[in-house]
Write a structure and sequence with these properties.
The chain folds into two domains: 231 residues, FAD/NAD(P)-binding domain, CATH 3.50.50.60; 206 residues. The protein contains eleven helices and 22 strands. β11 and β12 form a beta hairpin. The protein is globular, with a radius of gyration of 22 Å. Bound molecules: flavin-adenine dinucleotide (FAD). Flavin-adenine dinucleotide binds next to α1, β2, β10, α7 and α11.
Amino acid sequence: MAGENIRCQVLVIGSGPGGSITASALAARGMDVLLLEEGQNLRNDSCAPFSSEEIAQKYRSGGLNPALGNPNIPFVEGCCVGGGSEINSGLYHRTPAEVLANWRERYQVRDLQEKDLEPQFEFCEKVLHVQLNPGRVPAAADKLKAGADRLGWKSREVPRWYEYSGPISRERKAQAKRQTMSQTFVPAFLEAGGRLLSGIRAQKLAWENGRWNTIGVRGSESVQINAEAVFVCAGAVQTPALLRRSGIRKNIGNSLAMHPTVKVTALFDDEINTLEPEVPAHQVTEFSPRICMGCSISSSAYLALAMTDYPELQQALRAHWKQMAIYYAMIQGPATGMVRNVPFSTAPLVRYSLNPENMRSLSEALRNLCRAMFAAGATTLYPSLSGFAPLRNEGDLDRLPVALSAANTNLMTIHLFSSCPMGEDLNLCAVDSFGKVHGAEKLYVNDASILCTAPGVNPQGTIMGIARRNAMHFADHAS
Ligand SMILES: Cc1cc2nc3c(=O)[nH]c(=O)nc-3n(C[C@H](O)[C@H](O)[C@H](O)COP(=O)(O)OP(=O)(O)OC[C@H]3O[C@@H](n4cnc5c(N)ncnc54)[C@H](O)[C@@H]3O)c2cc1C
């Protein structure tokens, strides 16, 4: 394959939700589309969901990516055909109306009313079978709901992109299958005549003689792809890195945002955890979109990781893991992140900073989460703070600082966006209202990067709705 040259009408780089939906929408409109993916094309049953094998196979760098700052925030991305959709929990939200209003006003995004996105949301919801769990709700989710109810806070079960089967009733656990991109939009794309190339990383783009020439690498081999138009959909970190490597830098990689997330492991008297990992889909929405609280996967491997701040309790964990579950609180983080390339490295440098006000919001989020857990009957809480004594009752909450300290707070995130914001404000935005890179010919971004700010809800619904809207706009205007 050394030096192979491929031609296509449209090249889509990255096969996560943004890229798969773009590629399948354009192929369905009769275009000659090539979908390029750095990661491998793995069978859905190549590993168990949420297992350590899944982390090794499908996560970028085994899940170890740091955003450097004060504090550092580890982040997680998918790297396989389907991107993040292959490893995520499937919690689905449409974009909150107030978030869209902010993007229209502050970033001057055109045609982004709820009604503009509704047909796109409806389409994606149907393809992905977005629905509530018709079976038994995991016990950890019941606890969060009970805590919220006792405090008089709003909470709800969030729908997910899962197909359910088996004898279904609220008393029994339903068989559930995650509706990833590799199960849905990628097969539809291939059926419509699209071509998929996996295991090839796009290295650089160059505009030559009125077309885009993309250099891709697979090991030591190189591939050149010549396309009329390119959609970069490599995710909120890799998209700006690729564009910057290609000399395209205006407002690119200067405004990465995320949902900084703090966690609490809760111990109850009764058993709430099982060997089979379940996704508890309830969230407390009382403070949304500013603060969102929910339940995490609490398999024994995840519990062991969550309890690294309490090394003396690893033994107790073995005895009590069935009574323990992990919960999270996340905030709408500011757009202060930077993505830059480092010579001789394929991993971009990511910096992200939180200010004292953000650390106060995180403390408020953590305090509220702990209140909900105590109201649910938790006997001990282990927040993700190093060197912090466990919390044993409501009174102990006074020990939480008014602002979390960068020195001992262990945050993480799985939600990244906004590194190439969309809109018509040329001072702020990298791409126009439909994803076209300002100042470049036939070059588009159509993934999490173009969300103007942190949406405050799980983002994939927004990414999918906007990606489909932009792909349809491109197809409608292609001459
Ligand atoms: C553990 C986890 C749980 C999550 N849970 C939820 C949830 O419940 N609900 C929700 O809404 N969101 C969730 N998310 C977030 C959601 O998965 C992401 O927001 C979404 O996948 C982002 O889509 P994307 O298309 O922008 O990028 P990605 O999904 O990151 O896809 C980008 C793709 O591009 C490929 N790529 C990158 N660089 C290159 C290159 N140079 N050349 C070729 N290919 C490249 C990558 O390998 C990747 O496959 C979760 C994320 C994680 C990690």
